[in-house]
Amino acid sequence: MIIMKTAAIYLNEGNESQFGVSIEEQLDILTKIAKEKGYRIEKVYIDIEEHFITGYYPKLNELNSKIYNSDYDLVLFYKSFNMFHEIYDYLKQIEFCINSHVDVYSHMEFIDSTAGSEGFKFIHGLIATDDCL
């Protein structure tokens, strides 16, 4: 029996108001990634408290807590540039995991941990069940 890996998608309303990236466009992009990677999408969250995390720019520790305490193998989210530095700093802390344990999906190719802001602009997801988180 083949067991399908499950994914959740988090859509950021802030991207629509600030960058013109509609909820529908975010969902299309992340759905395509999930399906290409063989994940079954189990839940779609948006920026409302009962769904996920309030606010346009959730803090990483809150996000990780929500991910870690779920049964999802993958959580995909389309982030705004405003979150970039916080997430980049976080990834630097777990850089030893990036190549072997943590899947990072991006519009721009992820080069290495020294790539700076040109290395990647959008992080789409992190494997949720990895010890590095």
List the helices and strands and how they pair.
Elements: E1 5-10, H1 13-19, H2 23-36, E2 39-45, H3 60-68, E3 74-77, H4 84-93, H5 95-98, E4 125-127
Parallel strand pairs: 1-2, 1-3
Antiparallel strand pairs: 3-4
Written account of the structure:
There is one protein chain. The chain has 133 residues and is an alpha/beta fold. It has a domain at 1-57. It is 33% helix and 15% strand. The protein has five helices and four strands; from the N terminus they run E-H-H-E-H-E-H-H-E. It has helices at 13-19, 23-36, 60-68, 84-93, 95-98; strands at residues 5-10, 39-45, 74-77, 125-127. The protein has a four-stranded mixed β-sheet, covered by helices on one side. The longest helix has 14 residues, at 23-36. The N and C termini lie far apart (29 Å). Mean pLDDT is 55; it is low at 52-60, 80-85 and 91-133.
How large, in whole angstroms, is the Cα Rg? 14 Å
Low-pLDDT parts are 52-60, 80-85, 91-133
Q: Characterize the overall form.
A: elongated
Reported for the largest beta sheet, the result is: 4 strands, mixed
Question: Count of DSSP E strands?
Answer: 4
How many helical elements? Answer: 5
Strand content: 15-25%
List the secondary-structure elements in sequence, H or E. Answer: EHHEHEHHE
User: Reading side by side through the largest sheet, how are the strands ordered?
Assistant: 2-1-3-4
Describe the oligomeric state of these chains in a short phrase.
Answer: single chain
Helix percent band: 25-40%
Mean pLDDT: 55
Protein name: Resolvase/invertase-type recombinase catalytic domain-containing protein
Domain Resolvase/invertase-type recombinase catalytic: 7-133
InterPro entries: Resolv_N, Resolvase-like_N_sf
GO molecular function: DNA binding; DNA strand exchange activity
